[in-house]
């Protein structure tokens, strides 16, 4: 059953979602940045970002290495980023942190190796938000064998975590448009965000236009 649902998801949703995510993320990466994508999968989104942003460099690390990847990818243990301090300008997590038991562990590691973090994840707030996120997560990931601890945070929890590592939101987009109607009615509104967090002396937060 997960295999069949995964096939349908890949055919009807995944390609569109990856392209739109790449568009949104590319807007928030500084010029000339060295980027590390943590939990990058096969690097499909990264390849699309690079097509738009030839001024940057990207590589990835992944717990579950794919046979073929679209960017250079190293294996890691899911907790320790295998690079020295300040090796990158920006670390990226795309729907990764809610798959960990304690997101703050990887956030601290990201802060160690870079001064900026770019995150695509979820807010768990509102009517049946947890149930909707669980369903969406299972459909999109169960067939890949990805861990599903369903560790979703509220907006307040995210802000507290950023405070704990000495960072703050500098740019945010909560209108991503990842799913077409009618799926967007159930799986879109209020559940997703893309945010860049910078050192506490960085520019104030502002909304990025869709």
Task: Describe it.
This protein is α/β, with parallel strands linked by helices. The chain has a domain of 80 residues: Rossmann fold, CATH 3.40.50. The longest helix is centred in the N-terminal third of the chain and has 25 residues. The chain is globular, with a radius of gyration of 16 Å. The termini are far apart. It contains 6 helices and 8 strands; from the N terminus they run αβαβββαβααβαββ. The N terminus and C terminus are likely disordered. Strand 4, helix 3 and strand 5 form a beta-alpha-beta unit. Helix content is 35%, strand content 20%. Strands 3-2-1-4-5-7-6-8 form an 8-stranded mixed sheet, with helices on both faces.
Helices and strands, with pairings:
Layout: H1 2-26, E1 34-38, H2 44-52, E2 57-62, E3 73-75, E4 90-94, H3 103-113, E5 116-122, H4 129-141, H5 155-164, E6 167-173, H6 183-187, E7 192-199, E8 206-207
Parallel strand pairs: 1-2, 1-4, 2-3, 4-5, 6-8
Antiparallel strand pairs: 5-7, 6-7
Helix pairs in contact: 1-2, 1-4
Keywords:
210 residues; alpha/beta; Rossmann fold; eight-stranded mixed β-sheet
Could you state the CATH homologous superfamily of the domain at 1-80?
Answer: Vaccinia Virus protein VP39
Fraction in helix: 25-40%
H/E element sequence: HEHEEEHEHHEHEE
* Number of H- or I-type helical stretches: 6
Shape: globular
Which regions are unreliable across 5 or more consecutive residues at pLDDT < 50?
1-12, 204-210
Find the CATH topology of the domain at 1-80.
Rossmann fold
CATH-defined architecture of the domain at 1-80: 3-Layer(aba) Sandwich
Radius of gyration: 16 Å
Percentage of residues in DSSP E strands: 15-25%
What is the highest CATH level, the class of the domain at 1-80? Alpha Beta
Indicate the structural class: alpha/beta
């Amino acid at each position: 059953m997960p295999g069949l649902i995964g096939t349908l998801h890949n055919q009807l949703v995944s390609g569109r979602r990856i392209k739109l995510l790449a568009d949104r993320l590319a807007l928030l990466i500084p010029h000339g940045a060295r980027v590390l994508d943590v939990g990058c999968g096969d690097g499909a989104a990264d390849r699309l970002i690079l097509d738009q942003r030839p001024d940057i460099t990207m590589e990835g690390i992944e717990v579950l290495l794919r046979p073929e990847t679209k960017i250079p990818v190293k294996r890691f243990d899911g907790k320790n980023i295998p690079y020295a301090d300040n090796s990158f300008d920006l670390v990226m997590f795309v729907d990764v942190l809610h798959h960990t038991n304690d997101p703050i562990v990887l956030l601290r590691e990201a802060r160690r190796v870079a001064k900026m973090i770019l995150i695509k994840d979820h807010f768990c707030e509102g009517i049946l938000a947890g149930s909707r996120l669980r369903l969406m997560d299972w459909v999109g990931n169960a067939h890949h064998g990805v861990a599903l601890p369903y560790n979703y945070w509220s907006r307040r929890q995210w802000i507290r975590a950023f405070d704990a590592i000495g960072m703050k939101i500098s740019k945010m987009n909560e209108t991503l448009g990842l799913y077409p109607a009618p799926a967007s009615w159930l799986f879109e509104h209020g559940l997703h965000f893309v945010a860049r967090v910078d050192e506490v002396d960085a520019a104030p937060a502002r909304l990025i236009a869709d």
